[in-house]
């Protein structure tokens, strides 16, 4: 019989000791990790994602995780663990919490889209009261609810290591959003937070007001996601007033809200003065031509820091789109622009075609591609965007073209 590599051998032995069957996919990941000597000198992220398309996948269960945690307890050079799209529940979260309390090397943990609920969230959050190494945690898509979110808000008052926290699509409520915003007024370590798609039942925008108050005093937050917050022009105005006093935020995501041209006017005024924002996502709002013109004016005459702008699906017609293309002719810092889903006419198609052909707008830095039919220029859609790889991963290999995903190209997030 051939001699098994150390990590795989440890996994097989642990399965036997605990009376658990081997998970072929987990065994394959360990086998590949053992083969790669270079990564073991730099630290390694074990990618045991349940949506892996390269090899047959048997999704990780709570029993599998018990074995996995036991194996990794002594694997000091494992600095990242990707367990997205598996079937872990609150029982598995207990093993995750124990592992976080005992481990002193893990920096990246991805648990997105498992079945962890409120009690599991409590266990993980409490473990982070004592953990001093984890930098990046993704809980996206686990239905932890408002109560689960409150445990993470309490954790943010104690933990001083975590830099990136992703609580998008977690059914957060008003109470925990307010608590998280309050905690971030004092927390100096968190640099990026995702609060996308909470469950809000009020039209008063209380949560946005509290986030705005936090931004006035927070000097560490670099990236903020507020997608699907039912935000209207009043909320945008509050955020803009706060950002006049903020000199740290670089990435603001306001996509899928209810912002109109009046909200875009507030943003345009902000861009005339703000010298920090690099990425602005207004995807799926309704700023229309007037809103696009407000933004274009600021970008043409004043702002020289914004690098990426998304106005996808904003009911903008030719007039507003041409204004944005004209802004790019003057503003050389604006390198990424996403415009698909608006009302193209021949003038706007020609304007963006000329930008691309002249080399001012790189093909990988926008979501449209010009083509000609019967002597008329038209635009076709490309699958590029600000967060192209947020949920989606390539079927073959790794993400190699970061320019097609502006958030990675401008504000890359390390898994280590």
TrEMBL record:
Keyword Repeat set for record: yes
Top-rank lineage group of the source organism: Eukaryota
Record carries keyword Repeat: yes
InterPro entries: Leu-rich_rpt, LRR-containing_regulator, LRR_dom_sf
Keywords of this entry: Repeat
Protein name as it appears in the record: LRC34 protein
Gene name as annotated: Lrrc34
């Amino acid at each position: 019989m051939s001699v098994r590599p150390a990590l795989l051998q440890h996994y097989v032995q642990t399965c036997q000791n605990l009376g658990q069957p081997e998970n072929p996919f987990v065994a394959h990941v360990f086998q590949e990790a053992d083969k790669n000597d270079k990564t073991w000198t730099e630290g390694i992220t074990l990618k045991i994602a349940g949506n892996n398309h390269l090899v047959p996948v048997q999704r990780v269960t709570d029993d599998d995780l018990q074995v996995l945690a036991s194996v990794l307890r002594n694997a000091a050079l494992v600095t990242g663990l990707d367990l997205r799209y598996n079937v872990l529940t609150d029982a598995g979260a207990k093993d995750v919490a124990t592992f976080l309390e005992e481990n002193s090397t893990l920096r990246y943990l991805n648990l997105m889209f498992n079945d962890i609920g409120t009690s599991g969230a409590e266990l993980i959050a409490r473990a982070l009261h004592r953990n001093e190494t984890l930098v990046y945690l993704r809980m996206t898509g686990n239905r932890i609810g408002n109560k689960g979110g409150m445990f993470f808000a309490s954790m943010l008052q104690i933990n001083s290591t975590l830099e990136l926290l992703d609580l998008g699509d977690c059914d957060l409520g008003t109470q925990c959003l307010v608590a998280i915003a309050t905690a971030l007024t004092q927390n100096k370590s968190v640099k990026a937070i995702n609060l996308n798609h909470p469950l809000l039942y009020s039209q008063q925008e209380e949560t946005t007001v509290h986030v705005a108050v936090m931004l006035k005093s927070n000097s560490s937050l670099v990236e903020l996601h507020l997608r699907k917050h039912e935000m209207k022009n009043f909320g945008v105005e509050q955020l803009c007033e706060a950002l006049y006093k903020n000199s740290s935020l670089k990435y603001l995501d306001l996509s899928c809200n209810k912002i109109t041209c009046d909200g875009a006017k507030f943003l345009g005024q902000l861009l005339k003065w703000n010298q920090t924002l690099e990425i602005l996502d207004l995807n799926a709002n309704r700023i229309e031509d007037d809103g696009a013109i407000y933004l274009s004016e600021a970008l043409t005459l004043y702002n020289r820091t914004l690098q990426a702008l998304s106005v996808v699906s904003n009911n903008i017609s030719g007039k507003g789109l041409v204004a944005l293309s004209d802004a790019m002719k003057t503003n050389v810092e604006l390198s990424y622009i996403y415009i698909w889903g608006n009302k193209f006419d021949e003038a706007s198609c020609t304007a963006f075609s000329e930008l691309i052909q002249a080399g001012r707008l790189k093909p990988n830095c926008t979501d449209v591609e010009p083509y000609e039919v019967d002597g008329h220029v038209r635009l076709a859609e490309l699958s590029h965007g600000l967060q192209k790889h947020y949920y989606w991963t390539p079927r073959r290999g790794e993400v190699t073209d970061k320019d097609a995903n502006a958030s990675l190209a401008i504000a890359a997030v390390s898994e280590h």
